[in-house]
Design a protein that fits this description.
Layout: E1 4-6, H1 15-41, H2 50-58, E2 62-67, E3 72-79, E4 85-92, H3 101-107, E5 111-113, H4 121-147, E6 162-164, H5 180-194, H6 196-200, E7 209-213, H7 220-230, E8 235-239, H8 250-264, E9 268-273, H9 276-279, H10 293-307, E10 315-321, E11 339-342, H11 348-359, H12 370-375, H13 382-398, H14 406-418, H15 429-448, E12 454-459, E13 470-474, H16 484-505, H17 513-528, H18 561-588, H19 590-603, E14 605-607, H20 608-615, H21 623-630, H22 639-643
Parallel strand pairs: 2-5, 7-10, 7-11, 8-9, 9-10
Antiparallel strand pairs: 1-6, 2-3, 3-4, 6-8, 12-13, 12-14
Bound molecules: adenosine-5'-diphosphate, magnesium ion and zinc ion (ZN).
Residues 220-221, 273, 320 line the site of magnesium ion.
């Protein structure tokens, strides 16, 4: 476990003991103080009842008196046994508002006066001034010692950076796999921190800042921790969002504090996670209301601090973000984050390596082939793969197996891709039939389309949030590009489910909504981003804004209404043609569709050779090849008339 200390202070002993100790001490101190003060204030004099005092006045014994509102001090003349006359001083507490008293005193010739403004002398004054602050600070100090870091209000400007002392993250470079380029880059930095002279002797300057960018879960944070584990230097870790506070200026103060600490500890590494939280472009889309003063000030402070130290002092700043495009350009200027290390989703070899890392502590059965698992998981990031291994192990444990088998991994992949099985959701007969034809429709078209991989499984067991049935298609290799005909094929496959419903039942259900959504998105992207329309040409109509985060819509560029209309027409045409081909293929393979759907209704799941043999019988009608190549249909006949006979 990492030893985390606050502001580099030594770890405090358990707080409970300390609490009891200092509290008692404080109490004693207060009591003592009280005793001293009261001793000075009230000089001990014999106290007599008020009535006695009055009697003594009337007897003419009282010589003089000091009459205060709550105390009367008076002297009486008495004779000592040896005949001397002496004065004795007494005090008494007057009855409230005895307005007759001055009159009585005058009648008996008593010399009287009010007490002087300050009866207690200079020591009393001193104490009355000095004691309250002492008590105040005593309590303050007591609170400070209790809190360890001081009351929250006092630490607003302090950086909250956690410091991992060397190697204490427990993460090593060997724990990070599949990101070899990134690792190589960072190994160089670790080496610099360890053997600085090797570089400085040659006059080489080490980069001040390294920016790790990549989609979520690709190991950015992990890699930064691995640096801490490898480099034997202090490692400050803080998240970008921790700089941003309610009060303007606090973030800037934190940045200053962080760098101050770092410079004292150089050589060291400062890691800022989720840099985009504070490094958003200052120009850009304006804030909704008011200024973003706090963030801007914090960012400015960061920029200043990064300029403010010499590259070879040995403070290296590593930051991570999955939104590099929103970062302020000033951050990426040379001398700041001038190195950028991209951690992309791993390829097949990388995935296998990551699986190996995570499977190290898992008992694997002999039939497990990590290479095959890697093939079946394109697009999975490191975090997904870690999750997959754990999921598989959990499944095996639930089955009381001695080791994790390939079947567990397959089920785990399915869970991650399609969600949990929901056998509790019972479909009625019509629904089940609709779902079966729908899925077989997807499968038959998928089997005939280029580059999309094998159809591995069709199921009518509901899964996940919305899927009533599903078809799993597994790629045979990693693909980094999609060619035009593959996009068309993909769109036709997506529309295959709905087409089968149309063909068989003559009407459509709501079950195709998601397919249609995806098909439309893909068709639109083909035209507005990939420039695949002949009529509109290679023009970008959308601004790609998120490089690493998927699922965010891109804003349209400024386009004329005429062009917008054309885009819509083109999108519709792509979808219409794909729909037509899907219907046409299913019509052509109508018997296969019927038989496979009936079989699926019986067994609920079709997979393996049973499924493969069936899908191998699927044949494409003549027009398909031409459509895949050009996107154009040879026939001019309207869609429905051709097919729904
Ligand atoms: P990021 O910060 O990029 O979003 P993390 O570093 O937090 O991702 O990764 C989360 C988890 O996923 C890690 O703790 C680790 O278990 C696993 N992981 C991610 N990438 C890798 C990798 N390249 N090698 C091994 N494990 C990884
Ligand atoms: Mg992270
Ligand atoms: Zn579907």
């Amino acid at each position: 476990m990492p030893v985390e200390t606050n502001n580099n202070k030594p770890i405090k002993p358990p707080k409970v003991q300390q609490f009891g100790g200092s509290f008692l001490f404080l109490l004693t101190l207060l009591l003592l103080l009280n005793l001293i003060v009261s001793n000075f204030l009230g000089t001990r004099l014999p106290q007599v009842p008020y009535s006695t005092f009055l009697t003594q006045v009337e007897a003419g014994e009282v010589v003089r008196a000091i009459v205060g509102s709550d105390r009367i001090q008076y002297a009486i003349k008495t004779q000592t046994p040896d005949g001397k006359t002496i004065e004795k001083v007494y005090t008494t507490t007057p009855v409230a508002l005895d307005l007759d008293l001055p009159k009585i005193l005058r009648q008996h010739n008593v010399e009287f006066t009010a007490p002087p403004p300050n009866q207690n002398g200079w020591i009393g004054t001193l104490i009355s001034w000095v004691a309250p602050p002492i008590i105040f600070f005593g309590i303050w100090g007591f609170l400070l010692s209790r809190q360890g870091g001081g009351p929250a209000a006092l630490t607003v400007g302090k950086s909250k950076a956690r410091i991992y002392s060397e190697g204490s993250t427990g993460v090593k470079f060997t724990d990070v796999a599949g990101v070899d380029e990134g690792k190589a880059e960072l190994e160089e930095i670790v080496d610099f921190l360890k053997n600085a002279t090797k570089y400085t002797n040659l006059g080489a300057k080490i980069p001040k800042g390294v920016l790790l960018v990549g989609p979520p879960g690709t190991g950015k944070t992990l890699l930064a921790k691995a640096i801490a584990g490898e480099a034997s230097v202090p490692f400050f870790s803080i998240s970008g969002s921790e700089f941003i506070e309610l009060f303007v200026g606090v973030g800037a103060a934190r940045v200053r504090d962080l760098f101050e600490q770092a410079k004292q500890q150089a050589p060291c590494i400062v890691f800022i996670d989720e840099l985009d939280a504070l490094g958003k472009s200052r120009g850009g889309a304006g804030p909704i209301m008011g200024g973003n003063d706090e963030r801007e000030q914090t960012l400015n402070q960061l920029l200043t601090e990064m300029d403010g130290f010499d590259a070879n002092t040995g403070v290296i700043i590593i930051a991570a973000t999955n939104r590099p495009e929103v970062l302020d350009p000033a951050l990426r200027r040379p001398g700041r984050f001038d190195r950028q290390v991209v951690l992309d989703r791993p390829d097949k070899i990388g995935r296998e390596a990551i699986l190996k890392v995570h499977a190290k502590n898992v008992k694997l059965a002999d039939d497990v082939n990590l290479g095959i698992i890697a093939t079946r998981t394109p697009g999975f990031a490191g975090a997904d793969l870690a999750n997959l291994v754990n999921e598989a192990a959990l499944l095996a444990a639930r089955q009381n197996r001695q080791a994790v088998h390939m079947a567990d991994f397959n089920e785990a992949i399915e869970r991650l891709v399609a969600g949990l099985e929901k056998r509790s959701r019972v479909l009625n007969e019509t629904e089940k039939k609709t779902v079966a034809y729908h899925e077989v429709g997807h499968a038959i078209i998928a089997a005939l389309m280029p580059g999309a991989g094998k159809v591995e499984k069709i199921s009518v067991v509901p899964r996940g949030v919305g899927a009533l049935g599903y078809t799993i298609q597994m790629p045979e290799e990693d693909r980094f590009l999609m060619v035009e005909d593959e996009i068309r094929g993909r769109i036709a496959t997506l529309l295959g489910g709905r087409s089968a419903e149309e063909l068989v039942f003559g009407k459509v259900s709501t079950g195709a909504a998601d397919d249609i959504q995806k098909a439309t998105d893909l068709a639109e992207r083909a035209i507005t981003i990939y420039g695949m329309s002949d009529r509109l040409g290679p023009v970008a109509f959308e601004k790609i804004q998120q490089q690493f985060l998927e699922g965010y819509p891109n804003p349209r560029r400024a386009i004329s209404p005429k062009v917008a209309e054309e885009i819509d027409r083109e999108v519709k045409q792509i979808l219409d043609h794909a729909h037509h081909i899907a219907l046409s293929i299913l019509h052509y393979n109508r018997n296969l569709l019927e038989e496979t759907a009936q079989k699926l209704l019986q067994s609920e799941i079709l997979e393996g050779s049973q499924l493969r043999d069936r899908l191998n019988q699927a044949k494409a009608p003549a027009e398909t090849a031409e459509w895949l190549r050009t996107g154009e249909l040879l026939t001019d006949q309207p869609l429905m008339q051709t097919l729904l006979v």
